[in-house]
TrEMBL record:
Family note: Belongs to the peptidase C15 family.
Keywords assigned: Cytoplasm, Hydrolase, Protease, Thiol protease
GO molecular function, one term: pyroglutamyl-peptidase activity
Naturally occurring in which organism (per UniProt): Streptomyces yunnanensis
Entries under PANTHER family matching the protein: PROTEASE FAMILY C15 PYROGLUTAMYL-PEPTIDASE I-RELATED, PYROGLUTAMYL-PEPTIDASE I
Self-association and partners: Homotetramer.
EC number: 3.4.19.3
Function in brief: Removes 5-oxoproline from various penultimate amino acid residues except L-proline.
Locations listed in the record: Cytoplasm
Catalytic reaction equation(s): Release of an N-terminal pyroglutamyl group from a polypeptide, the second amino acid generally not being Pro
Subcellular location, principal: cytoplasm
Name of this protein: Pyrrolidone-carboxylate peptidase
Amino acid sequence: MTSATPPSRTTPTPPTRVLFTGFEPFGGEAANPSWRAVRAAVAAPLDGLALHAAELPCVYGDSLTALRTAIDEVGPDIVVCVGQAGGRPDLTVERVALNVDDARIPDNAGAEPIDAPIVPGGPAAYFATLPIKACVAAVRAAGLPASVSNTAGTFVCNHVFYGLAHLIATELPHVRGGFVHIPYAPEQVTDRAQPSLPVDAVATALREIAVTTARTRTDLRVAEGATH
């Protein structure tokens, strides 16, 4: 009597966990398009990805505490932090985070640090660990304007970007992360001549960035630099 061969069983591949973060309003604005776009980006499923969103306060220090809490809760493989860069004409994927807070305007708690290190004794800068050029190419292929940026500023956006990069470098080497700046939403510029991008378009771009990062280990080698 021969025994039947048991059916083969395969363990399903777990989804890639993606955490998007956006900011609360700041600078007198009624809403922040980064948080609106992040919420829209995670509203529909993507094959092979588990999408999560967290809102960060626009406050030095507190923003990193909220980021760490969200990372601990989600356990992400990829973190894409998003912030508003009013005046920029396109979605910009940031290349580098600087270890400095230098506030031109106060944060939402009234803090205005000047030339203060984000991590005392930390490296002067970190590069994003997203495939930034592949992400830009994917957003453009979706019909939306995008470019690589070489400055994330010195406000809370850069603060969060550097804090994320430092956390990845020192504690979470399996995580890939970076920062994306987006323009104003159209309703923010009805009384001023500034470029804008609809929130739903930004959400589409963020989803392209998530998919591209999950599928790409080696970035494109194409020119995306700047002369100034």
